[in-house]
Task: structure prediction
Amino acid sequence: MQFHRGRLIDHIHLRARDLEASKRFYRAVLTAIGRGDAIHEGETFFNADELWIDAADDYTSRVHLAFQAPDRETVTRFHAAGLEAGGRDSGAPGERSYHPGYFGAFLFDPDGNNVEAVHHGPGERSAESVVFTVT
Result:
């Protein structure tokens, strides 16, 4: 059996009530699965696979989940489809200042999680997907 895994998830951002407790927890579990070497700490806590954790100044949204999109048109379709399906606007499609070419749109899902679609601009992938074969 084979699975083709691309980059559906661009990044995940968790909002922590107690940042120090979250740092301890994620440092331990990421180290246990062999990913502790990719941890960076400062005002936020993150690893190289795009997991970000910071202190929540409010609890409007607990989770921020971003999907990769192949182009700007897909980002715009994502936003329209989400609104049509009951999502609430959290940021219309447009360029953001995160880096040149960053084009994103944001919605709150029915549970209040902040969901994004993002296109990072022109670029070239090293591979369309990673093939994982179950043996």
